[in-house]
Amino acid sequence: MKTMPEIARYTCYRAAGPIIVDGGLDEPSWRLAPKSTPFVDIVTGEPAWYDTHVQLLWDDACLYFGFTAEEPDVWATLTERDSKIYEDNDVEVFIAAPDAYYEFEINAFNTIYEVFWIWKDALAPGSPYSGRHEWDPRAHPVMTLSGIGGHIHPRGERWGFLDWDFPGLRHAVHIDGTLNRHDDVDRGWTVELAFPWKGFYGLAAGRSLPPRDGDVWRIDCSRFEQKDRRGKALARSAGWTWNQHGHYDSHIPEVFPYVTFSTRVVGA
Question: Is the pTM of this model over 0.70?
Answer without folding.
Answer: yes
